[in-house]
Amino acid sequence: MPSVKIPRKSTVTDMTPFVDVAFLILAFFMLATKFKPPAPIEITTPKSVSSEKLKENDAVLIEFDSTGRVYFTMNTKKASDIDLRRDLINEVNKNRNLGLTEAEMQNFKNYSTVGSPFSQLKALLALSKDERNKVKQPGIPVDSANNELATWIGAAKVAFQGHQVIYMLKGDNNAKYPSFKGVIEALKSNEEFKYKLITDPKAVPYGTDLYVKRQSGKSEDE
Amino acid sequence: MADIDVSGGDSGHKKGPGVKKAKKLSTRVDMTPMVDLGFLLITFFIFTTTMSTPSTMKLFMPKDEKDPKDLTEVKQSGALTVLLGKDNGIYYYEGQLEPDGSNFKSSTYKEIRDEIIKKKKEVIAAHAHSPACEKLQKDAQEKGDPNWKDACRDRDFVVVIKPNKEATYKNTVDILDEMTINQVKRFALVDITDDENMLIKATEQSNGVQ
Q: Which residue of A has its CA nearest to B54?
């Protein structure tokens, strides 16, 4: 029917508002979030109502994942204190007669996360940082018969002498209690009884004693 | 918001004869690739950043007492023992465990808070006043604590937490969190005894937990 013509409308849409919205969302994410720190292992921490925020300090970070593998990291507040890591590995070397070379000790100084028993430590430190990240480490033994974590903590105490150290524990939700207990025992054997557990924030349930206390604005000393 | 002017694209006006006009090219830019780029960047930020910074929870463990004399006295009537088992199983009993296990009860993570609150109220109500208490109450009142009346009475209430080998770290942290939520001032994290473990296993079997 050539005489009837359907009026055609343009299907081209102006994409400019799309761009505006996209950049707005992007700006929100850039301002309101922080980059996740790179970690060699995947850990989902449990939630807690504690309101104390993570502080940057001289710290010993002990992480354990869902299979119970324990990792030890030494963090210093000041970049100039990074030599203390060398003191730590030196101490461990002397204590356990590992026969580490200077190069391997330097390697530890640059990247101090360790998750292997002493028998595999020399091989681990021979690798570069990227290779160490890729290797699946078996975790530091913390069973009562052979608690190597205790040696690491002891060496950290010696290296950190004079500094105020905080012991941070970061555990996965599904880690079983015996791994947690092993870590606590290692700390206890080094006469350390005060630690901080890293958790995700959670809202305080309405109407409980803690809710009342926080509403009244009092500081908690727990 | 931004606006891009549409100019050209349509034919210019006819000028007089003899005037040659350069053909006007369209300045309209197709924004589709820009949108793709924008959303790609958003996706990158969604995956590599986190909105909530982790918080820390303080944990103080008591020293292992070699000398039984130094062990803090705890009234049995003020003690609530909470046992943690497999598959988020939670059990509790008040005071001492009866030889026949008659006071051994099961609970869930939601109900345990009600139990703790109930026991705390009971202990506070049954509290015997003393002069040392007066001082603690006055201190709390001066600090502006809304629960200052309970300042001394809640010292009688102790929760003993005993996770077994199958309990997860999350279970332990949840219970420690309940201590903070309900403002339980005295609690202890200790090993489970074999009797208690046997009771847990028996309950699990009868409930069909693998």
A: A200
Whether the Cβ atoms of residue A42 and residue A72 lie closer than 8 Å to each other: no
Instruction: In whole angstroms, give the CA distance from residue A126 to residue B112.
Output: 51
Asked if B113 lies within 8 A of A205 by C-beta distance, the reply is yes
Domain ranges of chain B: 78-207
- For residue A53, what are the CA distances in angstroms to A74, A200, A211? 19, 10, 18
Question: pLDDT tens across A44-70, in order?
Answer: 888 888 777 777 778 888 888 888 888
Q: What is the pTM of this model?
A: 0.73
Report if residue A84 sits inside a domain: yes
Q: Domain limits at A163? A: 57-201
ipTM of this predicted complex? 0.75
A6: in domain: no
A83 in any annotated domain: yes
Query: Which of A197, A198, A204, A218 to mutate: most B Cβ within 10 Å?
Result: A197
Instruction: Work out how many domains chain A is built from and give that number.
Output: 1
Is A28 within the bounds of a domain?
Answer: no
